[in-house]
Amino acid sequence: MRLGLTVCLLLIAVAAQAAEIKGKVTNALGGESLGRVEVVVLETKASAVTTLNGEFSIPNLAPGSYTLRLNAVGYRLLTIPLTLALASDVKEFSITLVPDNFHHTDKVEVHGDIFQAADSPATVETTLTASEIRETSTVFADDPFRAVQTLPGVSAEGNNEFFAEFSVMGAPFSSVSIYIDDVLVPSPFHEIGNFAEGASLGVLTSEVVEEMKLMPAAYPEKFGDAAGAALDIRTREGSRAAPLFRITTGIAASEFLGEGRLGSASKGSWLVSARKSYINYLIKNRVQAAADVGFYDGDLKLNYDLTPRQNVSLFGTGGHTDMHDPTASGIDTFASGRSDFALARAGWRWAVSPRLLVDARGAFFREPDELRNPANQILETTNHQEWVGGASVTWNWFSDGVLEAGWTTRRIGESSSQVSYDTTGPGSSAFHLNGTALRYSGYAQQSASLWKGRVHVLGGVRWDSLQLLDTHPFSPQGSIAIHATPATVFQLAAGRYQQFPGLAEWSNVCSALADMPEKSDHYTAAVEQRLGENTRLRLQVFDRQDAFSLAQIPGQTVATVPGPCTHSAEPVPNTTLLRNYSRGVQLVLQRRSANRLSGWLGYTLARAEQREYAYTNPFYPCPPLCYPGTSYLPSLEDQRHSLNVFAMYRLRPSINLSGKFLYGSGFPVSTGEFVQVGTVLNPVGTSILRLPYQRLDVRADKDWAFKRWKLTLYGEVLNLTNHYNSRFVYSSIIINGQAQVQTLQGLPITPTAGLAFQF
């Protein structure tokens, strides 16, 4: 008995003197404590899982040298060497884990608001973090623009899930401006012309995008190039640590990513990525009338600190797309096509002082494509390219106020051609365009916080100009956020936006009339209630009012218009052709956390209608070019009800589950109604057909951690319920006085899987 008691006391004494490792783990993005992180001492296999407070403890370790490994699915593997010199040592660590697709850092990056980017709280915006982008981009496509389609109030254009383009609360994609690192890029996609049976995909992947910010209405004039909405995309830097590589292979695509520091002093970083798609093999014989579309792309980003206050950067992305349609047979039908996209951007940032920042950039991008018939003859070619230069200054000229101003010059070039053929003679050119123009824009905006941060205001003005167009509009914007209580915020915003027409409207010498800038007035009001630190309930109402007008091209008269455009008439003043509006209400419940459940549920009720005004073209005889006008009718973006749901949950340190559900009541498809008089069908009106849409996707990620590398198995099922989603193609023959709508099947139930190796 005494011997046993002595042994127990000795063991207790030894344990009391055993060394211990403990600490706290936080997320590098936002600084939130990370629960469900596996912490292992590799030499002894002793382990612990962090609590919801991010804390862990591994006791009873003998003196010696050890390696601590931390792992959680979706985060980079981290190993820490350490030494316990004495049995009484207690090593305490403060550790940050970095999301897989976030730039590596040893510092916690904290924004003032978990739901707001580093912008004024008066800015109306919705953000996507790096983790959310990865989980919503889909394994099938790995497309950040598919992630945007998951946000409340956003839908794939026309609910056609084969395309990356999207509409925002009644605003069409043509009215959405997209910025990649402050460079306006109209169409950063893999796509070929307007090939309806094809598809489009973003040239960027979730691996290189760090943050996306959608501004649906009344946004700052800095982003005022378009009249509907704005999307700001930020690409990430590479790691400034040892080189890290990630190889992903799956049945949909293969990807490679490498990153690391530049120079031994870690003053810079490099990042390289490449992707090759196999989507055409996956959907072959599964999707009705789907063309064979394949692509590859790549990215490069370099950053370097010239001095502690000056940084230079270079970003390049590019891709190639091929399309083949084996069912094409007619000489004027699209049988094959190809397109390319290339963007290069160089930047320089200089922190003149802690209160003054100068940012300059230059860029070039081009987007050529072509379509051919079954005989390999060219039917269409297009090429859009731009040289871009710009600079901005940010001045924190008083403690709670920031003044920002910027200027951009763009040299735009466009060319296109269309050729038609017949079976008895050579091809004849039906259309040709080749033109260039300079486009200028400048803005200034002031943000400020008042009354100890309870009120935030933002106001700005923008000036725009396009060569050949004799109009130089100013556009104002203002917004305010009022904290009625620490948990309740009221937000009001209004702005005017002027979207200039495409260059094609002002380069066609066979017309004396062309579109004027689209003018849009935005109004929005919202109330947001915080339900704890990580959850919010937001109710927003919005109203956009647009006007489209037509005017004479400066210097162009009927006397100077060549060829068939020589009808006698007097020059006409600016004439309103079309007005439309999109207004509605949106309710969003969102929780953003690295622990437990994260995601959102958003319902949007919207109404989008348009009215055409009576108009007669004075340069052409009437009839036939007479426009009688209409009352307000649903526009093509009039989807009344939409529901966007996304959720993800880290079940264990090595298992993450996510899913999304999308529903739309249907965008309108106008079909003609006709009355037959003798052998002629005369149009008498239109009717509206809506094609409802719904889709449920589920995804699971499972990883296995080793000493220096990790393996992740991921799987996803798209359209789990195999819902038949119709996608509009065209209206065909007339039966019983009604044009028949032709549709094709959307994506059926589609499983995908793959492996990712990180080392």
Features:
759 residues, mainly beta, 5-stranded mixed β-sheet, 4 helices
Structural class by helix and strand composition: mainly beta
Overall mean pLDDT: 84
Give a count of the beta strands, DSSP E runs of length 2 or more.
Answer: 46
Helix content: under 10%
First and last CA, distance: 55 Å
Low-confidence stretches: 9-15, 106-111, 557-572
Cα gyration radius (Å): 29 Å
Total of helices: 4
Largest sheet: 22 strands, antiparallel, barrel
Shape, per Cα inertia axes: globular
Binned strand content: over 45%
Walk me through the topology.
Blueprint lengths: L1 H15 L2 E9 L10 E4 L5 E3 L5 E7 L2 E8 L6 E7 L5 E8 L28 E3 L1 H7 L7 H5 L5 E3 L9 E3 L7 E5 L2 E2 L4 E2 L10 E2 L6 E7 L13 E7 L8 E7 L2 E10 L5 E10 L1 H5 L8 E16 L2 E15 L11 E18 L2 E17 L5 E21 L2 E20 L7 E23 L4 E12 L7 E12 L2 E12 L13 E3 L2 E13 L4 E18 L22 E17 L5 E16 L2 E2 L9 E2 L5 E2 L6 E12 L2 E10 L3 E10 L2 E11 L2 E13 L4 E9 L7 E10 L2 E8 L4 E9 L1
Parallel strand pairs: 1-7, 11-16
Antiparallel strand pairs: 1-4, 2-3, 2-5, 5-6, 8-15, 9-10, 11-12, 13-14, 15-16, 17-18, 17-46, 18-19, 19-20, 20-21, 21-22, 22-23, 23-24, 24-25, 25-26, 26-27, 27-28, 28-29, 29-31, 30-32, 31-32, 32-33, 33-34, 34-37, 34-38, 35-36, 38-39, 39-42, 40-41, 42-43, 43-46, 44-45
